[in-house]
Amino acid sequence: MKINHQKSTIALFIGIVLVAVGIAFAQTSVKETTTTTTSGGTISEFGTDTIVVRSESSPEPLRYSYSKTTNYVDESGMPVSVETIKSGLPVTVHYTKVADQLVASKVIVRKAVSASPVVQGKITTTTSAGTVSEFGPDTIMVRSTNSPDPIRYSYSKTTTYVDENGNPVSVETVKSGLPVTVHYTKVGDTMVASKIIVRKTSATPVPVIEEKRTTTTTTTTTNDND
Predict the structure, then answer these.
(1) In this prediction, what percent of the chain has a pLDDT beyond 70?
(2) Residue 166 carries which DSSP code?
(3) Could you tell me which CATH number the domain at 36-109 has?
(4) Does domain 125-198 sit in CATH 2.40.50.320?
(5) Is the pLDDT of residue 221 over 60?
(6) Is the pLDDT of residue 91 over 80?
């Protein structure tokens, strides 16, 4: 009886050890390492299950797949609607690489930054004064004492018209004979008026009265008999 009891105890111990080793082995074999990578750029295409992002660091756009579990948030972490995702938006994509596929887990939609206009060369604003000789639908001719011929300026809806104090005036008040100062920039061979200052006309000149003097000669005849 003693021998059978010892055998049972040994068998039970061996069984427990084998189960423990099996559990440990199973846990070790299931363990995986998942790496999440972040990439930024601008959306060039947003399809039904893929998002294509172009970045400065890559010559070719990167293609990511996404699903219903992909999260879309703004820079503060607040959720955004997937309907707002479109081409041209700057984004940061959190993704994992599964075989040869990049799977997006989170897409951060960043604020679009207005691009600064590219200025070719230096823009110089010049001022010229004179008198309006012609005011057409898109041009104004100004005659000045510095030029033998009137100078032609083009103007548009962005051209402003003000008086000498800087107060806006109606474009309808601009007409031939008015003294003006034109602020303009030269674009190619065209002078483009950005601001036209309408100056006050000089006071009506006092008429010159020609003074005429009339000399009257009186002849007196003397009688010798007196």
Answers:
(1) 67
(2) S
(3) 2.40.50.320
(4) yes
(5) no
(6) yes
3-class secondary-structure state, position 25:
helix
> Over the stretch 146-188, which tens digit does the pLDDT of each residue have?
777 888 999 988 999 999 888 999 888 888 888 999 999 988 8
Residues forming CATH 2.40.50.320 domain(s) in the chain: 36-109, 125-198
Average pLDDT over residues 133-140: 90
For the cut 90, the answer to whether the pLDDT of residue 115 exceeds it is no
Which of 183, 213, 180, 216 is CA-nearest to residue 198?
Answer: 180
- At 223, list the tokens: 């009688």
Structural contact between residues 174 and 135, judged by C-beta atoms closer than 8 angstroms: yes
Answer yes or no: are the C-beta atoms of 156 and 165 closer than 8 Å: no
Cβ contacts of residue 63 below 8 Å, gap of 6+?
50, 51, 52, 102
End-to-end CA distance of the chain: 204
Q: Which two tokens stand for residue 187?
A: 């674009």
| Tokens matching residue 39 | 């990439």
Burial class (CB in 10 A: 0-12, 13-18, 19+), 22: exposed
How many angstroms separate the Cα of 37 from the Cα of each of 54, 63, 64, 100, 107? 16, 14, 12, 14, 12
